[in-house]
Amino acid sequence: MELTQLEYFMTVARLEHMTLASKTLGITQPALSHAIAKLENEIGAPLFERNGRNIKLNRNGTMFSKWIGRALQNIENGLNEIEEWSNPDTGVITLSYLNILGVELIPSLIRSYQLEYPKVRFELTQGNLGDIDEHLEQGFSDIMITSRESTLDNHHWMTVQNVPLYIVVPSQHRYADCSALSLAELSGEPFIGLKNNCGLKATIMSRFQHTGFVLASAYEAEDLITVAGFIKSGLGVSVLPKTLGLMLDELVWIPIIDEGWYWEIGLKWREDHHISPAAKRFIEYVETLHQVE
């Protein structure tokens, strides 16, 4: 049973005339008659009562048309919904991102984009690195905003920000008055680290590999705000980006002398997955912003 057969059936049922129906559909009358006969044969019952070129639904046809009408409407609704979601002017952009980025970067990007494309909607998912990585890999998100280190071979990557990293100490710490520090100065200091599901951990660990010393790890936290809270309580020091949500009272942010201490944040999407036109336009928009900056 083919979709065109059902559309032909509904047109004949509505017009009750084979010649008029064939003209409306843009096919020959013999072709239409053949299609209706084939449909009845597949169903195993007649659907019409015929009187010359005039034709009316019988009891079978009336029952069948009720359900086919609903089915065709559902198909049309589905196509309209796909169009609405994918249309770059009115579509939906499915975006996942690290929790900490929801304080400043994500709202800023969405606001600036919707000033230009006010009818576009965003479907957002935030979480730790493991959660949003899985969301992207399973196809629930078109785009992910995360750390570069989480990028795999089948991912496209576009840098959005290089966020400077700072040594962060409590206000009563012996380094609190320093204008800048080298990471070597942290040797022996209790260090508040991050668990593997935090997007910043891979960045920090890759940088520490070139400092020539081993961290005296004291605690590992689930997220960056917990790290900031532990530092404030005097439980250790750490390295963090100076972003909204982390700048608690009684924390001191010390610039790092060593080169390369920044957190590269960007857009990631799968090259082997379909990207909707709405998402493609957003990627192009962010790329243009990055070039201007």
Automatic annotation (TrEMBL):
Q: Which residues form the HTH lysR-type domain?
A: 1-58
What does the UniProt keyword field contain?
DNA-binding, Transcription, Transcription regulation
Spell out the Pfam families in the cross-references: HTH_1, LysR_substrate
- Asked if the keyword Repeat belongs to this entry, the reply reads no
The keyword Chloroplast belongs to this UniProt entry's keyword annotation: no
Q: Which PROSITE patterns match?
A: HTH_LYSR (PS50931)
InterPro entries, alphabetically?
Answer: HTH-type_LysR_regulators (IPR050950), LysR_HTH_N (IPR000847), LysR_subst-bd (IPR005119), WH-like_DNA-bd_sf (IPR036388), WH_DNA-bd_sf (IPR036390)
Q: Which family does it belong to?
A: Belongs to the LysR transcriptional regulatory family.
Q: Which PANTHER family match?
A: HTH-TYPE TRANSCRIPTIONAL REGULATOR BSDA, HTH-TYPE TRANSCRIPTIONAL REGULATOR YBHD
Q: What name goes with this protein?
A: LysR family transcriptional regulator
What is the native source organism of this protein?
A: Paenibacillus taichungensis
